[in-house]
Amino acid sequence: MNGFFDVPSDLQNTYWGLVGLHLREALIPVLAGLLVALPIAQACVRLRWLYPPVLGAATVLYAIPSLAFFVVLIDYTGQSETTVMIPLGVYSLVVFIPAIVEGVRSVPQETLDAATAMGFGPVRRYLQVQLPIAAPAIIAGLRVATVSSISLVSIGMLIGNQGGLGNLLNDGMIYHQPRLVWLSVNGTAVLAIVADALLVLLRVLVTPWMPRGGTGRTRPADEPDARPEPAAAAREKAAR
């Protein structure tokens, strides 16, 4: 079994080392993109005229091919992980900004008014009221950005051994070893599936008021739904 996971010496890494490199290069840009997108999205919520140009700029950046990004960055950051991670972080903005903006805008005005009446300032209201209610939309964007980033890391093989599991795909084609191609493609798919499943679990944990489905019986059409609406649940929590 150990021989199955052997990788060529030119990669200067083990298979599990490549897995760690792949995850590091995929997840750090996503987290950085989320941290950058949060204040930008809040500015777009407060200044509605700002949203179209910001989203347009993020879309234009997303349209830049990663190879072109590498050519520009390589003079400054060299053939390093940073050269791979910067484009991935920039690409995540086109997912995070609209997800956060639409999620925050979905918060009912009466909920915001109640929070203001309780003495919440803009920052506290944003962190303790708007973001928790917008959590489902934000986590949905996080799922898309994470899976996309995991798949795009492999492009880093174009600038040396910085493509994580994508390096195996490159070597598999060079040395005509289908085993390496299989390890690359399936390993990347497994990482994406596991990461997505963990984010689904995170959504379940941070949004207990969301419907789970699969209750075991079908509710009659004339039976009222006893579950509170998300906004109503948030208002009740704020009132307490």
In short:
With 240 residues, the chain is mainly α.
Structure description:
By secondary structure, the chain is mainly alpha-helical. 71% of the residues lie in helices and 0% in strands. The protein has helices at 15-46, 51-63, 66-77, 81-105, 109-117, 122-152, 166-174, 178-206, 230-239. Helix 5 (109-117) packs across helix 6 (122-152) and helix 7 (166-174) runs antiparallel to helix 8. The longest helix is centred in the first third of the chain and has 32 residues, at 15-46. The termini are far apart. The model is unreliable at 214-240 (pLDDT under 50).
Largest sheet: none
**Helical proportion, percent range:** over 70%
Total strand count, please?
Answer: 0
> What sort of overall outline do the alpha carbons produce when their principal axes are compared?
elongated
Radius of gyration: 22 Å
Q: Write the H/E string, N to C.
A: HHHHHHHHH
Gap from first CA to last CA: 57 Å
Percentage beta strand: under 5%
User: What are the low-pLDDT stretches, counting only 5+ consecutive residues below 50?
Assistant: 214-240
Mean of residue pLDDT values: 82
| SS summary, helix count | 9
